[in-house]
Structures are given as structure tokens and as C-alpha cells.
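can u pls check wat happens w/ guanosine-5'-diphosphate
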Amino acid sequence: RKISEKHDKVFVTGCQDPALETNQPRANAAFVVLARNKELEGVLQSLKSMERHFNRWFHYPYVFLNDGDFNSTFKDEVRKHVSSNVEFGKIDPSMWGFPDWVDHNVAKEGIRKQGDAAIMYGGMESYHHMCRFYSGFFYKHELLQKYDWYWRVEPEIKYFCDITYDPFVHMERNNKTYGFTIAVKELKETVPNIFRYASAYKRVKNITSTGLWDMFLEPKPEKPADELPKDDPKYKKPLPEDILRTEPGAGTIPDVDPESMEGETYNMCHFWSNFEIARLDWFRSKEYEDFFQMMDRSGGFWMERWGDAPIHSLAAGVLLDTHQVHYFRDIGYRHTTIAHCPANAKARQQPRPPYLEMTTTDEKKRIEEDAYWEEWDEEKENGVGCRCR
Ligand code: GDP
Ligand code: MN
């Protein structure tokens, strides 16, 4: 149940000469950063890392989005820290907050209850809106319309390794749709019913399992499902009563027939979406939109605290083939407490020194650049850095 290295190879091993790499045409892509003014410091930290390890060569543009207005300090500081074009956009209320078809009081009460139950971010209304925005709306924002690809950036992220090839171009060339670098398990209490809806979508649409869907399944119980007692919780779970079905006709979700679930259980695994490189046309496809609509209409973005990470992951599980997903096992990345360190990955276990010498076309420029970036260089402290120079 792995995305195997046999079928999904590291695109490029070792250091490329950025001068040669950037001679090639760039992809039609942008970084997407959702943020608030108060997160400026964390944003700048992320931008330094992004620029230092990748964008000082590739100069991909940034799109900043916010449900409020970015102030001039935020915009000025951001512009000072990047080597490419930046656009700042406001998110329309139609993409953020409660839609008309949901009973706001019921939803707020649902959120309040999750706060009382100490579910992580469960009681924070804005967090629910953020997750729903990243699940079903960001790719519809007008500033993203002109792009085919995006790379998600959050405040307080860090790249450990120089990325000297263009991930977009290589994904395109290899027919990849979705790329991740970390997969983790979700907190069960944030998504108690998410899998039943995703699985209902798959069944209603008659989608046959791909290898990817299986990645999200707990191994089958020893006994075949039909031998389980009918009251076994694995086999038969009533639908929660408090899932919203307020709008007349909103019930696009048929009740999940437990008999048809074939005893499948979600293993809580998901791609950690704060790092994500993906094709926007996948999110804009009818299939993804249908999937999102069905999930959305269940009310799970409020009555539970469904994150965009399990939403994107289960959508990929339903809609994508294993070969369309790329594991960036060579990208060193950290966000808050979780990191992926490629020093531990096969791709980095090649017999070669951690700091490769490479020749650039302009030696003097290289030395100047290195001196500049030394200022931001923290890699040595944890010993996982892998720089190309
Ligand atoms: P965590 O990584 O799951 O702990 O969640 P974060 O607090 O980092 O939020 C995820 C992303 O959404 C980050 O890029 C935040 O800056 C952004 N974000 C979260 N809540 C809001 C909000 O209410 N407004 C805006 N504009 N951005 C938000
Ligand atoms: Mn975050």
C-alpha cells in the first residue's frame, strides 16, 4: 500500500545547474499563500526559505489571498522579500463563510460543541472557513484563473534542500496531477464521518477502486465482512443525526448504506496539504466539483472539522490513478512540528557528499549570492541541509 519508488521515481537526483535549468521554458504556475496580516513574520520566514532554496533561480510569481484586506506593511514587506511578481487578492464572501443554504445557527452551534469537546481547532469558526475555502474554492479565485499549476506555501514553513529542478515542468512531463512530501494520520475526532461520505460518492458514481484508494484503507479484518455480527460497529454504523440537511433539495447525499461499504475503514492517512504542488485543472474538473459539492452538502465542514488535507486526499483516492500522484521524497520540508528529511530517504542515500560542488556559468555571481544567502542559512544547525554549491 505504498506509492512505490518503482512507479514513481524521484525526478532528478543531485544538483542541477540552475542557469541551465532556467534556460528551459517555465510552467504556467504560481505560489499560493493564504494569510492574514498578523502572520507577516511567519510569511517572511517562508518566503526567505522558498527564495533561498528555489525561487531565486526560477522566479515563479506569488498570489497572496486573504478574506480581509492586506495592509500596506504586509504588501511592502512581501515585495521586498521575493524575486518575482506578486499579486494580492481579497476573497469574496461567496467563497468564505457560511453559504445561504446552511442554517447559520445550527452550524455555529455545531462548531461551539466541537470547541467544548476540545477538538483541535474545532471551536474556531475561521478555521472551518479556511478548510472549506482550500477544499472547494481557492482554485476558483480570479487571480488563479490564468494559472495551470500551483504550489502552496504557508507561514512558517522551511525547505532544507536546494531544489534545482523545476517540479512543475517535471510533473507535467511525467503526467502527474498531485504532489506531496508528507503524509500523516488525521485526528479521528476531526473527521468521524468524512470517509463514509467519500466512500458513498465513490459508490454512487460507480467508481472502481484504484491502487490509490486502497492507500486510505485500514487492512481488512481477518474475518470476511459477511461473517461479522450485524451489530459489529465496523460493519454497521448509523448515520449521525446531526449532519445538516436543512435546505430543501440539499439532500444530494443518499444515506450511506452500511451494507455497501464492504467493511472499508479509513486509516486516517492523508497528504499534508500545507505543501502541495498540483494541477489546478484537476480541482476545476467536474468530477472534483461533484465530489466537493457532495462533501459540502453533508455539513461536515461545520458539524465536524473536516480539513482540506483529508478532502484533497480522499478526492485523489477516488478520482486519481496512483501514477498521477508524485511523492517528492527528495524535498526537505518542515512545517511546525512535522518534517520530512530527505537524508533518511532512499533518494538521498546515494554515495555522494552532502554538499555537492557544482559549477555555475558565472562564478563571481555565485559567490556573491552565497554570501547573501548565508545570512539566512540555518541548515547546519540541524544537520539536514543539502545545498547545491
Ligand atoms: P495549521 O497549519 O493547520 O495549524 O493551520 P494554519 O493556522 O497555519 O492555517 C492554514 C493556512 O490558512 C495558513 O496559510 C494560514 O495563514 C491561513 N489561514 C488560517 N485561518 C485564516 C483566516 O481566518 N484568514 C486568512 N486570510 N487566512 C487564514
Ligand atoms: Mn500552518
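The radius of gyration is 22 Å.
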